[in-house]
């Protein structure tokens, strides 16, 4: 068992409940097991599998099962408990949970010494139809199957596919789709719709120019400063951001990647403890995309920040349960970020945002980071902090 500085455990066997089995929840779960033996952990999640969401675009090349880990596997591997259930999260309920030290789950009362909320952040979604796909659809079927099904159903050549959203998710799906179409000699044309003037606006200068040059090389149409309105039967309705004039283009399918909702983030102090009405709830911690830490650390809605928050919250749960109660503040700053552009190209930054890397070196960095998380799923923690 690894050593955690200033953690002097009491004799009581801790009961810990983790709501959410995403990146933050799993990082916390494995960290708790890494440092402590005498704990009972229950994971509560509405799905039956942990999904590596940042890999979903790769399902145009690999089976969906490659990016999923059944919770039953985690139960068998680590000896925890898993309950499939969805909880409604509200601040006034957090206060009740703190007071009662238990949550009511269907017909069961689930007591806890510490509760970690890691439920993630909702995705922005618009109306659904048979010719609209979003990230949720790729969680239940591989990209290759979804796209092939659509193309076969329409049985037409020269159909247009529209990808809406120029953030990291939209860009990664865009290039995977282009490579998929080329591999299968499918003639569908591809376009990107983006409300901003350039792609990857949240990233350092250089990302946008590199990606847009690659889009031109691959004959991907680009419509910047354009709002998505509606996908109809065979066309997409758009609005020019500058003139506010509506127009339409031929389109048989739209893939919507509109980002995450940020209006429902819950506040936490620098140690990851939930704050409600300016009061700290000492036994309820929070991590991942649903949390905003009032600290010097990064609050970006990325897997990297989610993992770091999850690990810190887990360590602080153990610190708070010990004799000394010396908690660590969250000070993690992102060390880099890589956006893949298909199977053979990528763009990213490392250590400093001015240090932009592209091509094979960027891909190598991405694969190294992803391998590190895969090891964590196996119970091998290679993260330094």
From TrEMBL:
This is NADH dehydrogenase. Gene3D superfamilies: 3.50.50.100. Residues 15-309 form the FAD/NAD(P)-binding domain. InterPro entries: FAD/NAD-bd_sf, FAD/NAD-binding_dom, NADH-Q_oxidoreductase. Belongs to the NADH dehydrogenase family. The keyword Transmembrane applies. GO terms for molecular function: NAD(P)H dehydrogenase (quinone) activity. GO terms for biological process: aerobic electron transport chain. The chain crosses the membrane at residues 16-36. Coiled coil: none annotated. Pfam families: Pyr_redox_2. Signal peptide: none annotated. Its cofactor is FAD. Keywords: FAD, Flavoprotein, Membrane, Oxidoreductase, Transmembrane, Transmembrane helix. It comes from the Bacteria.
């Amino acid at each position: 068992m690894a050593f955690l500085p200033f953690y002097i455990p009491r004799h009581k066997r801790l009961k810990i409940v983790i709501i959410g089995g995403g990146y933050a929840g799993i990082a916390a779960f494995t960290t708790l097991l890494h440092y402590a033996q005498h704990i009972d952990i229950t994971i509560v999640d509405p799905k039956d599998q942990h999904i590596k969401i940042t890999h979903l675009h790769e399902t145009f090349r690999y089976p969906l099962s490659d990016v999923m880990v059944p919770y039953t596997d985690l139960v068998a591997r680590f000896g925890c408990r898993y309950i499939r259930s969805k909880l409604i999260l509200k601040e006034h309920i957090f206060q009740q949970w703190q007071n009662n030290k238990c949550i009511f789950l269907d017909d069961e009362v689930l007591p806890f010494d510490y509760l970690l909320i890691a439920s993630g952040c909702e995705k922005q979604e618009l109306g659904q139809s048979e010719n609209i796909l979003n990230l949720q659809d790729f969680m239940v079927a591989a990209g290759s199957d979804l796209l092939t099904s659509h193309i076969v159903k329409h049985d037409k050549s020269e159909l247009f596919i529209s990808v809406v959203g120029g953030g990291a998710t939209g860009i990664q799906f865009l290039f995977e789709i282009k490579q998929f179409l080329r591999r299968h000699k499918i003639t569908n044309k591809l376009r990107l719709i983006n409300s901003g003037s350039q792609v990857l606006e949240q990233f350092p200068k250089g990302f946008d120019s590199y990606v847009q040059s690659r889009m031109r090389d691959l004959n991907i149409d680009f419509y910047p400063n354009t709002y998505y309105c509606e996908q109809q039967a065979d066309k997409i309705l758009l609005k020019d951001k500058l003139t506010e004039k509506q127009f339409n283009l031929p389109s048989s399918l739209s893939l919507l990647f509109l980002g995450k909702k940020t209006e429902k983030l819950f506040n936490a102090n620098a140690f990851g403890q939930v704050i409600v009405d300016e009061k700290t709830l000492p036994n309820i911690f929070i991590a991942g995309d649903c949390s905003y830490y009032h600290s010097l650390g990064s609050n970006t809605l990325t897997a990297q920040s989610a993992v770091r928050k999850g690990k810190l919250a887990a360590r602080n749960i153990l610190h708070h349960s010990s004799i000394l109660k010396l908690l660590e503040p969250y000070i993690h700053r992102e060390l880099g970020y890589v956006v893949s552009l298909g199977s053979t190209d990528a763009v990213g930054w490392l250590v400093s945002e001015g240090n932009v890397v592209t091509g094979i070196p960027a891909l190598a960095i991405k694969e190294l980071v992803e391998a590190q998380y895969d090891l964590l799923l196996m119970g091998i923690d290679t993260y330094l902090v």
